[in-house]
Design a protein that fits this description.
The chain has two domains: about 120 residues, Beta Polymerase, domain 2 (2-Layer Sandwich), CATH 3.30.460; about 60 residues. The protein contains seven helices and seven strands, in the order αβαβαβββββαααα.
Length: about 190
């Protein structure tokens, strides 16, 4: 870990959002040479500006070496709980998970994440379009209605940033044309 950690203040652990926690953790991982991509529900929380709350952050590291992750996480106050989970003692409402990569959405690979600059470091997360696909994957393959509703929320909050043509192509390739039609129907019916 580098000694420039003073450049980014810790979040208010008791009240931090998924985005605040992601920026802090991913910034420190990046500083230790561990690239990661935020996926899943925490991305939905970010793109819906907190309308949806996830409760956990799924960070897919480029390098799965737990021996490299754990020292960095311990340095910023996180301890392992079980399997791939890490918890900060002052942050009871959020925890970290490190699922295996690579980042893919259904059969789509590779995924090019969106990049955000934070205090001189590049952090990565799914783009709004890929986050919609990710949520629709749960709806198409597991009939998870909550995932569909999350896709709708992203589309409404990030309308100018969601490429619906790309979502349609992806849905067709995944055998989810009906899911796409339902999404468009929901978006046009309620504006």
């Amino acid at each position: 870990m580098t000694d420039d950690s003073s450049q980014l203040s810790p979040p208010d652990w008791a009240t931090c959002t998924e985005e605040e926690l992601w920026r802090y953790v991913a910034w420190h991982l990046e500083g230790a040479g561990i690239r990661s991509v935020l996926v899943g529900g925490a991305v939905v929380s970010i793109y819906t500006e907190g309308l949806y709350r996830s409760g956990d952050l799924d960070l897919v590291p480029d390098d799965l070496g737990r021996s490299r992750l754990e020292p960095v996480l311990r340095e910023i106050g996180f301890a392992p709980t079980r399997s791939r989970y890490f918890k900060h003692p002052e942050c009871p409402h959020l925890f970290l998970e490190f699922p295996r990569g690579p980042v893919e959405i259904g059969e789509e690979f590779p995924i090019t994440p969106e990049e955000v600059e934070v205090a001189g470091r590049t952090l990565r997360l799914l783009s709004p379009t890929d986050s919609v696909k990710d949520r629709l994957a749960g709806y198409i393959h597991w009939q998870a209605r909550a995932n569909f509703d999350q896709a709708v929320l992203i589309c409404r909050r990030q309308a100018e940033r969601v490429d619906l043509a790309a979502v349609e192509r992806w849905c067709r390739a995944e055998g989810g044309r009906e899911a796409y039609n339902e999404l468009v129907g929901r978006l046009t019916a309620t504006g």
